[in-house]
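Notes to self after the Tuesday call (sharing in case useful).
The group wants a holo model before anyone commits to mutagenesis around the pocket. I volunteered. Ligand is adenosine-5'-diphosphate. Logging inputs and output together so the record is complete.
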Amino acid sequence: MKTAIYPGTFDPITNGHIDILHKASKLFDRVILAVAAVTGKNTMFNLEERTEICKEACSHLPKVEVISFDGLSVEFADSMSADAMIRGLRAVSDFEYELSLALMNKNLNNQIETVFFVPDNKYLYLSSTMIRQIVGLQGDVKEMIPQCVEKAMKKKLERKNAK
Ligand code: ADP
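Result:
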């Protein structure tokens, strides 16, 4: 039984993340989408909201479980007896950051391998940051995020605007 964790902020989860989960499900028996509590980012959704949205967006993926975690991702991976940590690589710009993160994680725990997945072409340009900006400007994001994510984002913005 091979287990992988896929840690990230997922603010919000996009079809790019889901594409990576599809690919990881072919290689691993269990894939844990690990929603980070500490992100160093000013997030649109709080931890509970990000976790709930991920659960709904991944309900059609039988091998995927969504769990939130606090602290170091390698420690969470260890507590889940995971063999690997998954990350996604889009453009070359991701590479330097992702490589240093993988090397640092290797330093912290030598037992957990980082495995990189490259998404399908149509998701290469997709980021959660861009999605937040487009939705904020009422742009069309139907092809880029699951319907439940779009609904949650619109609700969040309506509440914010009503204040
Ligand atoms: P973090 O804040 O840890 O970078 P993200 O939720 O932004 O969390 O991303 C989690 C992982 O998913 C990262 O490795 C990121 O490069 C990857 N990722 C994000 N968007 C895409 C995408 N469109 N295609 C492939 N991988 C992606």
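Two things stood out.
The chain has one domain: 3-162.
Residues 8-10, 14, 16-17, 20, 39, 87-88, 90, 94, 98, 119, 123, 126-128 surround adenosine-5'-diphosphate (CB under 6 Å).
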